[in-house]
Amino acid sequence: MERTGDKLFEKALEYPATLDTVPKIKATTPLIITFDSQTVNDTSLVLDQALVSFQHVDTKNEVALPARAVKSTESYKMDVSRKNFRLHFSSAPGVYNVALVLGSFKQGGLFYDLGNVEMVAPKGTKEKKHEVAYGPKPEIHHRFAEPQKMPNILVSLFFTGLVVVPFIGLLGGWAYLGVNADKLQMEPVGSVVFMGLIAAYITLAISYWIGVKLFPTLTYALVLALPTYLTGQYALSKRIEKRI
After folding, report:
1. How is residue 85 annotated by DSSP?
2. Residue 115: pLDDT above 70?
3. Which of the four pLDDT bands, split at 50, 70 and 90, describes residue 123?
4. Average pLDDT value for residue range 105-134
5. What DSSP designation does 154 have?
6. Which of 33, 41, 128, 196 is least enclosed by beta carbons within 10 angstroms?
7. How many CB atoms lie within 10 A of CB 35?
8. Other CB atoms closer than 10 Å to residue 93's CB: what's the count?
9. C-alpha torsion sign, points 19, 31, 49, 76
10. How far is 102 from 99, CA to CA, in rounded Å?
């Protein structure tokens, strides 16, 4: 244990020895545990897991803090800083059993009981009581959204009919201008392909109105744009050539 750089308590242990006293740990006297690991041949052993376990003697609640490797000394170090003390021990003071939980894929695991320490809470700190209440939860009442009121069927049919009005107007305009299909036979292949692509555009517009998203619709329109332009130009140029 240290306080502002001064060691208040120091104890060196060798497995399986334990502490013969119960030191008191406060927020101002953080606990530092340093240890190294060796094989039976006294060679340094790299651990895959190094934890320091603190188990409350009375409540059996456990806190496990990781120990970090110190490469310069080939050892492991864990310190209960003021932040860790406030987080884990201020609200639950008392006597804790301290143990090392070590693991290695090559050598296996080891549980080393170091002894007991007493965590002393600062003055004015109230111990938190962890109570678990079992019983039925309050009933959940869910109300589904009420369906929207729809207009009269005649109103829906009227506005649906209005959608057809522009198409009827288009046909009427063609009839007024004298547009007809008599000259399509002058270039049947190009004209049929061109009109088919125009029909594809109309189908795409209807699909967008029914439910196709905007970006897929634009993608399909760009795919149709070049062949529509080329076939239209080809059909018109052939008709002009035959007129000449």
Report:
1. I
2. yes
3. low
4. 72
5. H
6. 41
7. 19
8. 17
9. negative
10. 10
For residue 12, the surrounding DSSP H or E stretch is: none
Q: What is the largest CA-CA distance in the chain?
A: 118
Nearest C-alpha neighbor of 3 from the set 79, 92, 75, 96: 79
Task: List strand residue ranges (DSSP E) for 81-231, in order.
Answer: 94-104, 108-119
Whether 1 and 31 have beta carbons less than 8 Å apart is answered as yes
Average pLDDT over residues 70-92: 77
Residue 99 has φ and ψ, to the nearest 5°, of: -145, 150
Instruction: With H, G, I as helix, E, B as strand and everything else as coil, classify residue 185.
Output: helix
Does residue 76 register a pLDDT over 50?
yes
Helices and strands in the chain, H and E counts = 4, 10
Beta-bridge partners for 184: none
Closest among 127, 130, 56 to 97, alpha carbons compared: 56
Residue bearing tokens 């198409």: 167
Which residues neighbour 102 within 8 Å (Cβ) at sequence distance 6 or greater? 37, 47, 49, 50, 51, 109, 110, 111, 112
Report pLDDT for 222.
Answer: 92
pLDDT of 163-206, one tens digit each? 888 878 877 887 787 766 666 566 677 778 888 888 898 888 88
Reference 89, options 19, 29, 13; nearest CA is: 29
